[in-house]
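Checklist before submission:
- one chain only
- standard amino acids only
- sequence pasted in full

Submission:
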Amino acid sequence: MKKYYIVNIDLTKIDPEDVEALSYEAISQYYAIGTSFYSINEEELDDQFGSEVLCGGNPDDTFINAMEEFAQTREGLLGITFEKKDLLDRFIEFLDEIEVPYTIKVDETEDWNVEWRKSFSTIEIDESFLIVPSWEDIPEGQTGIKIYPGMGFGTGTHETTFLCLKAYKDLINQKKQFPSILDFGAGSGILGIAAQKMGATKVDYVDVDADAKTNAIQNYELNFETGKINYLLRNEFKVNGQYDLVFANILESVLTFEKDAIINSLKNGGILILSGLLNNQVENIKNLYQLEVVDHLVKNDWSCLVLKK
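Returned file contents:
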């Protein structure tokens, strides 16, 4: 039996607009392995939303709007699941700091990952590029990458990851070339690995978390028979202005803190793809970075900026 730790947050105790951001924080910064919404009254929630509430993945706008209304008018819970106790403890410290009340439930099961896998299916970035779970095959005649959903953020299911990949693919479709790329805040390595699959000859990966590095190595080996991923921890990375393109799919607070390192990693004329941004955070980042805006992509509550140095 495997042990999982579930942090339950009462949706009536937090602003409904903060629910999405809190879920993203848990996954991207504290490496939660899943989030779900459910009610103290399970029968009521099942009647309202059916099995969709348990299936994960990318719910449509109708479901999201209905869930937000439910959160405001009913007792309900946001459940955030952790596999590692030390990551749970770090997240609890964060909740204490921002004064969000919670309870913790310990669950022992053999089938959690099997059930979770049902929610992670093939994602189409466009008609010519797919993100495929590691246990499935890329369809014959299609191109894409395989990703194992481990401890590193980035499977393509979250809007910000999807938007970064979509922005990059749009640039490639315009015949733009980016021989050298930095994936800053690389997590699972999905962005850099996708770029290499699309022809980038040099990709460096940087993250603060050693668990994410382990997951990225696994994903690299799933997609390339030869070679070795150049994945550095943040304290090993030296800024040198050598990259044609930089990905930075990280939270606004980190984009703010790491602004100089991110901008100075770009060559003059280089492209910066930024995400991890809620729509209401975009103007602040645009004003902070002071770079030319090439494109602005939006999906649900999340934005991606394409900037030029």
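Reviewer check: The CA atoms of residues 63 and 287 lie 33 Å apart.
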